[in-house]
Amino acid sequence: MTTQFHDTALSGEALDQIFREARSYNGWLDKPVSDEQIHAIYELMKMGPTSANMQPARIVWVKSQEAKGKLAALASDGNRDKIKTAPVTAIVGYDIDFHEELPWLFPHTDAKSWFEGDEDGRKEGAFRNSSLQGAYLMIAARAVGLDCGPMSGFDNKAVDEEFFADDPRTRSNFICSIGYGDPSSIFDRSPRPDFDRFNRIA
Questions:
Q1: Which residue, of 14, 112, 118, 159, is most buried by count of CB atoms within 10 Å of its CB?
Q2: Confidence of residue 3 (pLDDT cuts 50, 70, 90)
Q3: Taking the model in full, what pTM does it have?
Q4: DSSP 3-state assignment of 108?
């Protein structure tokens, strides 16, 4: 069967770069990531959809040696070197008071009122949508020619206290190292399921 795609679909090479040939790296080449590249990632990721354009992600881009050391100290043993050797590691957090920004982020209606008085609902929405934004971040990083190494395996509470002390309503979700991946740091790709294994069209 020949699959028909829209004529504006990305090239096979672009899809390889973003998805099919992209890997989660455990080690990094000694090559820096510039502030301009970090800004380019954000300018792409912010365009991804979130519910009511809530944009709950709050990101700390850990780049200095001092900040890397602090973050690595709060990570599991297996993740410390990944953080220390990466040019930058993004801490993807989420603001549970995101609704305070909705008057300008979603000006079409009084969306702020939808979330007032419902902190549990805000926590759920912020976590879900910041996870989406974290995925957009990885796609954006790959699109601009960088590699990613997403991780959990850290003390969320301690990271919040260290990196979000000025914003106590923000919680860390996950972290993602970004740079130029060292091919020797990865193993063979793990299996990916065929469509019929976990999907059905209703």
A1: 159
A2: low
A3: 0.94
A4: coil
